[in-house]
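User: What would this chain look like folded?
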Amino acid sequence: YADPKMVDDHTSGRVPYGFFPYENNGKKKFYAWLDINLSAERAQVVIQYLIDGLFIDANTRELETDMITYNAELRYFCLTRLTFQFDPENGGSIRIISSIQTVNLEIYRTRSGQLRAVFE
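Assistant: Here's the prediction, encoded as structure tokens.
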């Protein structure tokens, strides 16, 4: 999808920035990055790219979202993945699958962590 009026929003291959197609297990997929710093209006433009470019339409069967957050108090990163599976044959139901993974990137900060480093 390439809107000639939005030349600055596209790569030289005429694909909107943030769209990365790939193939996984024989299925064609793509990433569309929405930066947390986007304004509501700009995020709507990117979502409209997805709709106008037929990346999201009535035939969409799955939408996967990833979000990385950081808890400064606990010093943990968290990867949250939500997968929405659309089933139009089953009354239009939507199945939601969630996955949450946390990572402590400062494992050697405490006394027990330093002891761990000695034994590793």
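The mean pLDDT is 79. If you want, I can go into more detail on any region.
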